[in-house]
Structures are given as structure tokens and as C-alpha cells.
Sequence to fold (852 residues):
Amino acid sequence: MKGKAMKEISATAAKAEGKKPDMTVFNVRAIVSKYGIYFIFLGMLIIASLLSPAFMTPINLINIIRQISIIGLIALGVTGVIVSAGIDLSSGSVVGMAAVVAASLVQTKGWSGALFPHLAESPLAVAILAACLIGVLAGAFNGFLVAKTGIPPFIATLGMVLAVRGAAMLYTNGRPVSSLTDEFNFIGQGSVFGVPVPIIILAAAAVFTHILYSRTKFGKYIYAIGGNEQAARVSGINVVKYKIIIYIYAGFLAAVAGLVVSSRIGSGQPGLGVGYEFDAIAAAVIGGASLSAGGIGTIPGTIVGALIIGVLNNILDLTNVSAYWQQILRGGIIVGAVILDQRKNRGGR
Amino acid sequence: METEYLLQMKNVSKQFPGVRALDNVELSVKKGTVHALMGENGAGKSTLMKCLIGIYAPNQGTITFKGEQITIANTHYALSKGISMIHQELSPIPHMTVAENIYLGREPTQWNGLVDMKLMNRNASELLERLNIDLDPRFKMHRLSIANTQLVEIAKAVSYDSDLIVMDEPTSAITESEVEILFSIIRALRKKSISVIYITHKMDEVFKICDEVTVFRDGRYISTDPIEKLTSAQLIQKMVGRELVEMFHKERAVIGETVLDVRDLSGHRFRNVSFEVKRGEIFGVAGLMGAGRTELLESVFGVRKTHGGEIHIHGRKVAIHEPVDAIRNGMALLTEDRKLTGLYLNANVRDNMAIANINEYMQGPFVNFRKIDSDCERMRILMQIKTPSLQQTIKNLSGGNQQKVLISRWLLTEPNILILDEPTRGIDVGAKSEIYRLMIEFAKQGKSIIMISSELPEILGMSDRIMVMHEGDKVGELSRAEATQEKILHMATGLSLTESITA
Fold:
């Protein structure tokens, strides 16, 4: 009964907007524009499997996902920041800082090069918590700068890129923190039932973040703030608070990425994560998040964006295209995605 | 004895850098009444309301609400106390749904803390149904027309179940039939002894729906009266502080040869439109919201792309791809949305005025600021722009004065064809009549004006000839003599479309 009434309402509303009420007709363009990126991804998979027989193998596919897990984790948080009409450039530096802090707590006992010998082989949980705390603090600082001082997010987080990287260098005196416990290395190198742990972490984080952004009040509010900050404010939303929280969440996820990457290479290096923020932003943007509008972007989109980058890198590797060409192509794809995004948002103009 | 007032604001003052926006004003609203707040732009109505809803903090004054003196620190507090507001120039959150916009900040949640979308959509659809608004709550806001967007804002304000609802120009973007919906909503609210503060520039609405009226002028309180004690002439006099004899002192200029000839032009939202504009003529373009009027004229000016059609100026075919081509051909366009496409809000009055004409002020690679200053000062006096100085940041000016700055900008380029898109939207009676005077002066100099307007009295009062559009088609043309309000409305709603095609 209710459903029928709703259908009628939607039909009259559609008519009122000058659109045909038949959903199948007027939505073809909308569907292409909404799900375009998924079609592109599908097309890439087909082309890739035609180009190289090695592509469509379980080992290779798992490899791709493992490779994007670090960028993917960062991109989940960055998507939220972009949705709130902000930007976070500091994720790469947070990766490095979290990596060295975590690594310094789980160096094997008795190793001569240990950074803090008395802290060696601390419980794994302590290392994880410490790294996450680093991310939360960096994010809180970002959020505070953006929400409280009103300086543009680009500038605020650009400052943090340098400051946090410097702190990581200072912490280790510029040296790598090596000889880590097996327990710690399991995070980046281990598998559960044949599935690499980084993929499990990414999947769990993606599902959680998706629900957080799309189904909770917090999620609604970051979309509202990004879509129209003034309207959000007069609806009684505490804009400052939620802006700070989204930067904290982005910092937290960057720190998790730092844990994974240091564990994967078995060493915490202060230079880890340089440039990761750009890949993460690229994944979000390819996946539909809008740097120009705010209030737009989804987690499924971002994951597909990261996968597109992963598949592209992979197929270029498999077909022996040089790493330099790969960079050029990646740059082109990011710009292309933004051009598409602009067209979509500008409509008839 | 119980106090009969729901709201009393006393001795409220608000100071902005360089401007005293409110000077010791007061406002008392009785329970269950519709209270009009009137005054010219810059009178301080919106400022006072922003103090009430917690967007601004007043420098002094008291607010007593439901018999209790309160300090309103933020919007959240105002809403929780039972004061909600329909904001005049506030667009919604475009990529969220109708329901999400209505319940923003008050989303219902399930047992697990997640937002209960089903319940929210159901509540929204019940609310909309109750208010007779025909909309699907799951529609994204950016797909709605301006009128429907406004209706959602109204529904949202009502949904707070407030004791007092502030409506800041709620009808500025909606058509007659939606105004009726709004008025029936207001009457229902009044019956439930909810009070409404109603801000508008439209006289007829005040007399139709309001019980009492308070008038402000230049940031000061003038008077409060029951509406039946006032005539519209008296009300206008209170607002402007002088008597306005006649709004449209129309004088016909000598109409000469064809200046602009548009043939079979098509584009986004309009098809095969042809029209001519002559020397000394004021050419009115009428139609409902969404008739394609703005799109048509923006295409003539090169803002939008066209597909098909020709434009001739002074009998010569011209190619207009960009606004710069139009400007070179002596055209100027005053856009519909001042803030979005007209003003550089953070720049000062002078720079806003001179920007379109900057090529005329170049001496080699340098800008001749002395010439700019003298030209702008001349314009300021001619247009009677109220500003402390030319250096004032333009966002501190009232809407009417901002509009005058924009008109000055285009007059400085000495155009032959001036396109005005809703030139008096949201500006006060005094400024309106001055803009009309300027239009007539302009036409008398042998220049041409194309004016898009949704206000029929303005179209009828000012135009020499009127073109009516309906959903992207030109329905017909009326001369000044044959045009009436009824005829235009009839054509604008598409009723006589078939007749005019066969005719």
C-alpha cells in the first residue's frame, strides 16, 4: 500500500521536475554517470586479461589487492576528508612516523642496533596502540588547524607533511629501525587461510568505513558539511567537532597503513610513505570523490579507484612497460578522472 | 496575567565593521500570529533574525522567549528552544536526499546506532503529504527545481515543531500555486497557535497573510501596527520614509531601427527562439520559473553554448562564443544571481565596478587608478549608492546597493544593449524605483534593454514589448498596449500555445 503511494508520489514529483516518470528511460545517462567507474574497471579487467595470460590468475589477483592495501587504507580516510570538502596531504608522513614508532617498540632483544634497547620486544598491542596514537594525534592537529583556525586544509596539512616527516627523522636519527619480531612481521607478511593479512585488514576497514560514512550520523554530517557548510551549521550541527573527527579518522587509518607497510618490509624507515598521499587522493578521485565540490564520494568508489590504479600498475609490469611510463600514465589517469568529474558536476554548461 | 507575547526582543544593537546594522531595535510577536517584518534592504531585518537564530551575537539587547530571558549562543540552542528559520539565500545540501536535508541534525537511529533511513523517509513522506507538497523524500536535492527546493526548506522549518518560525522571503523563488501551499501551511500553523515572523518585499502577501507588521528603516525601529490599520501606501511610506508617488514613471523613448536580431536560436532548455530588439526599446521577457529565459539570454551573451540559430547586431551577423565576443559587440549582462555570478564578494566597491571595463583604464602595461576612481565616484553619485567609501568591501553593502554597483559596472562599459536578468529581485522598493528610473534614462539615450522578470507588474510597467516563454518555447509577443497580467499568465502557463502556433 505504502509502496504504491510512494510510487505515485515519485511519479508526480518526476513530472513536476520535467522528467519522465519511467525510471528506465531517464536513468540511462544517470546510471552511466553514476556507475561509469565500475564499467571502466570491468573493461580494464577484460583488456588486461587479453594482454597477458598471467593476469587472470589467483596469485596475480591476490598480489594486486595486497599491493593496493596500503594505499587503500589511506584512501578510506582521505575519502572522508575530501567528502567534507577538505584535503589531507599529510598521510604519507604519518605512515612514516607511525612505522618508525611501531618498529622501535618491536625490535628483537639483544640486537646491537636497537634504537631503544630497553623497549625491545614490547607487547605487540603496545606497538599497535602507539602507532595508532601517533595517527590520531597528527589527525587531531590537522583537524584543529582546519576547523579552528580556518586556514585552508591544503596549507594546514602541507605544513604537517614537513613537520611529521621531520619528527620521524628526528626520532630515528634518520636511520632505519630493523630486526623486528616475527609477531610484528605477521601483520604485513602473514596469511590466514591463504589470504594475506593486509587484505583482511583492508577489507575489514573498508566495510567498517563504508557503514560509518553511509549509515551513521557522523557520516551524514561529513557529507552535509562538505555539501554546504553553512546549511549544516544552521541545522545545528557542530561543524568544528565533526571536521576534527574526520581528520583524526584519516590520521588513524594512515597510521594503520604505516603499521602494515613497516611490517611488510620488516623495517621501520623514516622515509616510508613519501608520495602515498597522492596515490590515495587519486584513488578517491578516480572513484568519484570530488575535489571541486565536496559532499561527493563513496567507499566502494574509492576501493574501485584503488583497484584501477593497482590493475594499471600490474598490467604495465606484466607487459614490461618501464616504471617511468607508468608514472606518466598514472598522472594522465588522475587528470582524466578529474576532467570527467568536472563535466558531470557542471551539467549543461 | 499571562503575558501575551511569545517573543520580545528589546534594545537590540549589532555593529559590523563600518556599519551599524541594528540600532536599538525592538520586536514583539504575539502568540499564534503572523508578524510581518518589513523594511528596505539594509534595514536590518535579516540581521535581527540572524541574532534571533544564533548566527550573530548582538552587541546589546535582551531576548525574552516564552516569558524567559535567554541568550542564544548558536543555532542548535535556538532550535532546541523552539525557534526555527527558513533561510532566504541558503541553498540546501545538493547531493543529499530531501529526507536527509529535512532531518539533518536530528536523524532517527536504530538500536545499533545506525541512521534509520526507512523511518526517516517515512516521516518525511508523511510530513510532505500533510503539507500537500508532492515530492519523493528520496530525491536528491540537486535534481529539484528552485521552487521545490524552497518548499523543502519550508517543510524542514515546520518539521522542528517550533513555537516560532522565521520565514525570510519564503516566496522569492516560488510561483503562485506554491505560494498558496505556503499560505495554507501558515494558516494551519496559526491555528495551532504557532507564531510566524514573515519577511517579504511583496505588499500583497503582507495584507493577505499577516496580522501585524513591524517596520525597520536603516537599522532602526519605526513602528508596529495591526495590518488592518494600514494601507499599502502608508506602509511604503513608513519603509522608505517618504512618499513614492509612482513606481514606474514610464516614458517612452523614440524607438528606432532593429539593433539585435536573434533568429531560430536553440540551446540547453530552449528551442528555435527568434526575436528582435530595437533602438530605445525596453524588451520584456516573461515566463515562469524554468521557462528557459535565463538560458536563452545567457546564450545570446555567450555564457552558454548554442546549437543552431543566428545572431545579428546592427544588421551584421556576429559569432558569439564567449562573453568577451558579446561585450565587444556592445552587450552587457546583469546576471540573475548576484552572489554566484556577479559579485567579487571580498573585493571592494571600486574594483567590483571597474572590472568589466579594465581595458579602458590601461596606460601601456599600467592601470590608471586615478581615472578608475573618478569614474567610479561619478557612478556612485549617479546611482546613489550608499557606501561609506569606494574602498568598502562589497559584501558589507545591502542587496540593493550591491545591485546598483553591478549595474554601474556594466554602464561603465557603455553598452548599446543591456540585458537585465531579474534586476530587482530581493531589493527594496526605494532601490527598485531608482533602477527603473535608470532604465528609462538609458533607453532615452537610444540604447536598448532586454529585461527578464518574474514580477508581472514590473514587466507590464516597464516594457515596450513583451515576449512570453513557456518550457523553452517562445509562446508569443505582446505590445505594451495589448499586454495584461491575465494574458501573460495565460501564455506563460502554456495554455494558448496551440493558438499562437496556428495564428
Q: What stands out?
A: Confidence is low (pLDDT under 50) at residues 1-25 of chain A. The first strand of chain A starts at residue 191 and ends at 192. The CA atoms of residues 89 and 158 of chain A lie 6 Å apart.
